[in-house]
């Protein structure tokens, strides 16, 4: 496992703050070409067969190969926690489920994968040497996580209790919203998180996505947090582009 230097701009993230995103892909090299051209990312060996995505030397995401072809091709949003074991217990007590129990990722930190009561999947990250994003909210980096759910009231209750300080505490500036799945997706779409990356020109970025073999899943629409389009990359992983 490569223990590369952390970004000098890495923040310390409070519990419940989206602190990392990673894509599980059939072909990491193809992912590097796609996202390298779309966002200007460069790449560096990370853990196992994964790679860090860097923007001007700051860690902004990771791309990892799927270990099982039956696994989804997907972007996963992870939330920070100082204690993954304790948070995992709170998740199950609140009606969520653990997909993977907390496990160490070398000295980088401790990871886990969970699902809320409706089945939307998200990650947990307890930092070691890797605290999370070296840069966020800037162009070509993560800026927002939207949960598309069939029951926004239940989602607000679940996450509001789980991540109360991050969402409602003094000085909170959450990068996490909830919306009804039918506002953007067909009714049969299961509840899920969509990672949003900021762009300076949404229409230009959509043209680049299509030129690189991706597709537009939901054309541009207005939200309270910016102008958004949902797309898939050339391997089928969904994400959103946000201009604000």
From TrEMBL:
Q: Which PROSITE patterns match?
A: VOC
Alphabetical list of Gene3D superfamilies matching this protein = 2,3-Dihydroxybiphenyl 1,2-Dioxygenase, domain 1 (3.10.180.10)
Q: Where is the VOC domain?
A: 17-127
Quote the InterPro entries the UniProt record gives.
Anthracycline_SecMetBiosynth (IPR052164), Glyas_Bleomycin-R_OHBP_Dase (IPR029068), Glyas_Fos-R_dOase_dom (IPR004360), VOC_core (IPR037523)
**Top-level taxon in the UniProt lineage:** Bacteria
PANTHER family, from UniProt?
A: CONSERVED PROTEIN (PTHR33993:SF10), GLYOXALASE-RELATED (PTHR33993)
| Name of this chain's protein | VOC family protein
Origin organism lineage = Bacteria, Bacillati, Actinomycetota, Actinomycetes, Kitasatosporales
């Amino acid at each position: 496992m490569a223990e590369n230097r952390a970004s000098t701009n890495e923040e310390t993230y409070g519990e419940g703050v989206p602190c990392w995103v990673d894509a599980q892909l059939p072909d990491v090299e193809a992912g590097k070409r796609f996202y390298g051209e779309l966002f200007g990312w460069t790449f560096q060996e990370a853990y196992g067969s994964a790679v860090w995505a860097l923007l001007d030397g700051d860690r902004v995401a990771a791309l990892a190969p799927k270990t099982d072809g039956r696994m989804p091709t997907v972007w996963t949003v992870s939330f920070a926690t100082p204690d993954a074991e304790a948070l995992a217990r709170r998740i199950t007590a609140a009606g969520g489920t653990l997909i993977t129990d907390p496990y160490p990722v070398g000295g980088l930190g401790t990871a886990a994968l969970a699902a809320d009561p409706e089945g939307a999947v998200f990650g947990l990250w307890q930092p070691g040497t890797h605290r999370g994003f070296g840069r966020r909210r800037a162009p070509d980096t993560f800026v927002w996580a939207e949960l598309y759910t069939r029951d926004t009231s239940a989602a607000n209750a679940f996450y509001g209790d789980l991540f109360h300080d991050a969402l409602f505490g003094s000085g909170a500036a959450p990068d996490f919203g909830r919306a009804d799945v039918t506002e953007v997706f067909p009714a049969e779409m299961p509840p899920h998180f969509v990672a949003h990356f900021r762009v300076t020109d949404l229409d230009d970025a959509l043209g680049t996505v299509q030129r690189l073999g991706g597709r537009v899943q939901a054309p541009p629409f207005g939200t309270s947090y910016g102008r958004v389009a949902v797309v898939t990359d050339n391997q089928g992983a969904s994400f959103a582009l946000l201009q604000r």
